[in-house]
Design goal:
It is built from six helices and no strands. It is an all-alpha fold.
Length: about 210
Amino acid sequence: MSGTVMPQAQTVAGQQFGQYGGQFAPDMSAYTTQAGQTYGDIAGQDFNAQTMQNFDAMRGAVLDPQVQAMARQRAIEATGNEAQIAQAGAFGSRGDVYMGERDAAYEADVANLMAQGYGQAQAATMAQTGARQAAAGGLLGAGAAETALGGQQMAGEYGEFLRGQGYDTSKLGALMGVGAGDYGRTTTDTYKPGLFDYMTAGLGAFS
């Protein structure tokens, strides 16, 4: 066994410490980084400014054209009302009161329309914020999955490294286990005489 165990033992004894050159922890996923940036943007968002931006866009596309249409209709009705006032002879304060009430009603309608538009702009801002939060949550989940997969791969690589480091020691242990048996050992049996042998020898001496 000296020809097999001893060289292997010398190999094990001569091994140097092998430093692992791989990573022990995966890098942060780009998805996680992007999710963090999105959450940061949401936290620093100016809700009122975003709402005004949505409101301005709504005014240009929807509200202002409606107000213009209401103004044209008001002008048409005012012409007919003035003719009716003239026919009724309601000049002076009576006519002014009537026209003032009409103007107040028109302004109230415009203000109500704008208030509705601003409420819709606020709802749009909240929906946009919710969509961004949902997107950030999806990125965070993808980043966690990617990081977990990278960690499993690194654990496998490190385990393979440890297996390689212990290969010579395992081989030596196997060889020593074989040497502990009776393989290759020569045995010699020693005969011990019994009582019958002594009696036979004594009878031979008297004959």
